[in-house]
């Protein structure tokens, strides 16, 4: 039997981008302006259009196959989420935290592609949005983010066997908009924002020593960062 392509998921809901420092009710109703224009006849003409953004609970996926190169909607999540953490863990897609423009969540749910349904698990110990999420071994990790009153350095780890979250040793730096990556048995917290400036620094978490260690920083960083890992074959 031909092997089915693995789905890759992406969350809708990045439209509303509240300013770091607060999330309030207005963020769901603000209408940002989109501008374009042209020059001619010695004058510059500017057009302004009002956009309406909405946080969605919809989720979509793409099948990596030549005959199915398209996005399709799947069952909606139980809540509308922006700035949530998304990762593949235990063969399922887990979505943690985020906000709906009014409140920040600690809730977590996973999508079962075989039943096309979402299922809740126990919530995180702290509410957070704009955090990093990654799976390492048999555990799911979240780190950093923003809880509505401050930027976070704390981290948590989830065990699916116990259906329980536990506190992890905190990072050395507060990081919102951070990317969390698992590679070679370790976690890497890359970049982020500490409430004052964008960060180029990188911290590595070693599960054996239960410590975060600074690694070589990025050359530059001007906002939220996306990180991916490609396994390299030995030469």
The overall number of domains is: 1
State the CATH class. Answer: Mainly Beta
Largest sheet: 4 strands, antiparallel
Helix content: under 10%
Enumerate the spans where pLDDT stays under 50 for 5 or more consecutive residues. Answer: 1-39, 44-53
Number of helices: 0
Multimeric status of the protein: single chain
Descriptive account of the structure:
Residues 1-41 are annotated as: Disordered. InterPro entries: Kelch-typ_b-propeller, Kelch_1. Residues 19-29 have a biased composition (Basic and acidic residues). It holds the Pfam family Kelch_1. Keywords: Kelch repeat, Repeat. This protein has 235 residues and is mainly β. It has a single domain (7-16, 27-215), classed as Kelch-type beta propeller (Neuraminidase). Helices cover 0% and strands 38% of the residues. It is built from no helices and 17 strands. It has strands spanning 7-11, 33-40, 43-50, 59-63, 71-74, 85-89, 92-96, 108-112, 117-121, 132-136, 139-143, 155-159, 164-168, 179-183, 186-190, 202-206, 211-215. The strands form 5 sheets. The chain has a 4-stranded antiparallel beta sheet with strand order 6-7-8-9, with no helix packed on it. The protein is globular and about 40 Å long. 31% of the residues are buried. Mean pLDDT is 80; it is low at 1-39 and 44-53.
